[in-house]
Design a protein that fits this description.
single chain; about 270 residues; alpha/beta; 11 helices; 8 strands; about 40% helix; globular
């Protein structure tokens, strides 16, 4: 059942909680630079995630692990300069919060001060509870992330669906309730069974944003480059490609090369 959208002039963490209470689904996409963020914000996306997936789509790394805090701040600052409406959430990269709560707070403060982001996101449950509490106590909004946590890929050894077994599912539910209890404003659930994701979303009052977690949650997130079809090697079940920019861009660039070689570009009307 569709719900009438309210005209939110600016999305805040409180807005997202209100949207869940009102039954309005939350849209979330990644962006990593000024130009793309301006388009995403102008299209009406509620939340822009400056994801550590920049490590993959922007830098070409196999995993999210290599990206640094300085690089995340660089990407986030460009995004923040572009937006007028969206809430900007910035990933804390691997190694910037796991060692101890003081390090986590220092990393979060740097992101907020140097990029202008509105909130941070970090992966994990009770293992990072003290880090999350320290950040929250400083007045910085935190979005949690459970299920498949890409920063732990070498621990898992695979990107397969998580929490299919009862023990892991029970832990995920406990972690979600803990994240709500200590003050997180939302949680991302990645690549878990749809039934479990819906159970979690219905058991807590904060929004649950899914990626590969079915339609029973409070919103959805995708990597922008994937949903636009700029990447073409990645084919998970949960990904819907809304465009095929890989083919369109390749064709356009190839035509440009041909036009330059043939001295067709620039023509008489394209020069001074």
């Amino acid at each position: 059942m569709s719900v009438a959208k309210r005209d939110y002039k600016r999305i805040t963490v409180k807005t997202l909680v209100d949207m869940k209470a009102n039954g309005e689904k939350i849209s979330m996409l990644t962006a990593y630079d000024y130009t793309m963020a301006k388009i995403v914000d102008g299209a009406g996306v509620d939340v822009i995630l400056v994801g550590d997936s920049a490590s993959n789509v922007m830098a070409g790394h196999e995993t999210t692990l290599p990206i640094t805090l300085d690089q995340m701040i660089y990407h986030a600052a460009g995004v923040v300069r572009a937006i007028e409406r969206s809430l900007v959430v910035v990933d804390l990269p691997f190694g910037s919060y796991q060692s101890d709560p003081k390090e986590a707070l220092r990393s979060a403060i740097r992101i907020m001060k140097e990029s202008g982001g509105h909130a941070v996101k970090l992966e994990g449950g009770k293992e990072v509870k003290e880090s999350i509490k320290r950040i929250l106590n400083a007045g910085i909004p935190v979005m949690g992330h459970l299920g498949l946590t890409p920063q732990s890929i070498y621990k898992f050894g695979t990107y397969t669906v998580r929490a299919k077994e009862d023990e892991e599912a029970d832990k995920l539910k406990e972690d979600a309730m803990m994240l709500e209890r200590i003050g997180c404003f939302a949680i991302v659930l990645e690549k878990i069974p749809a039934k479990l994701a819906q159970e979690v979303a219905e058991s807590i009052s904060i929004p649950v944003i899914g990626i590969g977690a079915g339609s029973g949650v409070d919103g959805q997130v995708l990597v922008l480059h994937d949903m636009l079809g700029m990447t073409h090697e990645f084919h998970p079940r949960f990904l819907r490609r809304y465009m095929n920019l890989f083919e369109d861009m390749t064709s356009s660039i190839s035509q440009y090369v041909k036009d330059v070689k043939a001295i067709d570009f620039p023509n008489d009307e394209e020069q001074y």
